[in-house]
């Protein structure tokens, strides 16, 4: 019976013609020049790796969101929110531009992101009771729908489609930044993209929701291509990071859009 140890199979000991003999000169030279150690093999990423890391990341976000909802008093929400946003932007930049996605950085980002999500959700729920639960259900449905769209290849992720989604995302963020600056230095309604009395706000939220769903398609495609191409196991943390970013984007836009149709309590 052949051994399971690769050192006892093949030509490891100069096996020739079914017997053992002295290795030829060329093989001896290769053995002499070979390094004394072999670098450790890198295990390729699997779908299970992404599922496990995605679950851990999302669970961390949900736990910190729940804790911030319950434990942070109303008098401290603004300063805690400001610190959480600044800190999460720093970790986001470190992961994105420093290429440092690992368990520590992604879980830290999710924890900080959860604090922000918890505070914002609590504020919305105080004004529009039940809207948070509706937004969670809507986000879950959007995730399932985009997974089905990707699986059935209803929308194919091409380089052109990828460029369009990324450009649209940057465009939306630019408009939100302009709106915030106008609100700070001008009228409270800003440029109207977040004013419920302006029809443009409804259009903007719907477009933002669609772009968030398209980002999910990009995430699914990255995961699929990573598995096919044998990306290293650590790439699963990048995938989990991207999934959480897309899901929170969809959730926050869903929260805002639903609030437009809800009466204040």
Write up this protein.
With 265 residues, this protein is mostly helical. It has one domain (47-260). 70% of the residues lie in helices and 2% in strands. It is built from eight helices and two strands. It has a two-stranded antiparallel ribbon with strand order 1-2. Strand 1 (15-16) and strand 2 (19-20) form a beta hairpin. Residues 1-23 have low confidence and may be disordered.
Short description:
This protein is an all-alpha fold and 265 residues long. The protein contains eight helices and two strands.
Keywords:
two-stranded antiparallel ribbon, globular, disordered N terminus, 2 strands, mainly alpha
Helices and strands, in N-to-C order? EEHHHHHHHH
List the total number of helices: 8
Q: Quickly give the structural class.
A: mainly alpha
Strand order, biggest sheet?
Answer: 1-2
As an assembly, this protein is single chain
Largest sheet: 2 strands, antiparallel
The total tally of domains equals 1
State Rg: 26 Å
Distance between the termini: 76 Å
Average of the residue pLDDT scores: 84
Unreliable sequence segments: 1-23
Q: What is the general shape?
A: globular
Strand content: under 5%
């Amino acid at each position: 019976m052949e051994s399971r140890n690769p050192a006892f199979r093949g030509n490891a000991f100069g096996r020739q013609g079914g017997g053992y003999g002295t290795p030829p000169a060329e093989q001896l030279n290769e053995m002499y020049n070979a390094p004394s150690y072999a670098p450790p093999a890198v295990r390729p990423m699997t779908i299970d790796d992404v599922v496990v890391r995605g679950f851990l990341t999302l669970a961390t976000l949900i736990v910190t969101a729940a804790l911030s909802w319950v434990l942070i008093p109303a008098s401290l929400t603004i300063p805690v929110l400001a610190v959480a946003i600044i800190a999460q932007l720093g970790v986001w930049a470190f992961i994105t531009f420093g290429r440092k996605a690992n368990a520590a950085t992604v879980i830290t980002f999710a924890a900080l992101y959860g604090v922000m999500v918890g505070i914002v959700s609590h504020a919305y729920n105080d004004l529009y009771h039940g809207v948070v639960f509706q937004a969670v259900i809507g986000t879950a449905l959007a995730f399932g729908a985009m997974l089905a769209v990707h699986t059935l290849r209803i929308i194919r992720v091409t380089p052109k489609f990828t460029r369009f989604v990324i450009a649209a995302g940057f465009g939306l963020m630019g408009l939100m930044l302009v709106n915030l600056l106008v609100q700070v230095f001008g009228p409270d309604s800003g440029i109207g993209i977040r004013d419920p009395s302006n029809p443009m706000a409804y259009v903007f939220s719907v477009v933002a929701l669609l772009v968030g769903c398209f980002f999910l398609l990009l995430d699914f495609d990255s995961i699929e291509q990573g598995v096919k191409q044998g990306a290293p196991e650590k790439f699963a943390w990048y995938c989990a990071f991207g999934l959480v970013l897309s899901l929170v984007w969809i959730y926050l836009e869903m929260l805002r859009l639903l609030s437009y149709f809800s009466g204040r309590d």
